[in-house]
Amino acid sequence: xxxxxxxxxxxxxxxxxxxxxxxxxxxxxxxxxxxxxxxxxxxxxxxxxxxxxxxxxxxxxxxxxxxxxxxxxxxxxxxxxxxxxxxxxxxxxxxxxxxxxxxxxxxxxxxxxxxxxxxxxxxxxxxxxxxxxxxxxxxxxxxxxxxxxxxxxxxxxxxxxxxxxxxxxxxxxxxxxxxxxxxxxxxxxxxxxxxxxxxxx
Length: 201
Prior knowledge:
Strand content: 5-15%
Number of strands: 5
Number of domains: 2
Structural class: alpha/beta
Largest sheet: 5 strands, parallel
Shape: globular
Radius of gyration: 20 Å
Number of helices: 11
CATH class of the largest domain: Alpha Beta
Strand order of the largest sheet: 3-2-1-4-5
């Protein structure tokens, strides 16, 4: 962990920020109690850092603002580079696209099996309204995990990966799925704790 941060400090560091750093409680705790406090803490600490450049794709920034639910002063945001990825220019290996297709197909099939399991259970047994509601909740949770957890399932995630690849930057995220997909593209990542050490030293 320390070795990673030491290597980061050796040269000009480009870091692409993910919403999860400021929203996920496990990573946010290093920066503040709320998404706003966490984001403001980062902005305040990179103001005078000449060896750090922090980037955000506009789509990711907009996503974060929905969680913050308040405006950020322009003089604070000036240290953050808002940049959309060059979507039509950045080259992505064909194998990466194949992996996404295969992963999506496998997850869709898994989602269908989960649906079938709950339909059979509902047809076989009689349940109270409370039990049916609990079954629906459980089915939704299992379905969400099967189809969404650990996969690139949003424009924001893809923008994040493209921008990091384009800028030859680190991704700061607490999303393990995103980290796994970034590795397939050769994009390095850092944790919230490593980011904290980097911006406060």
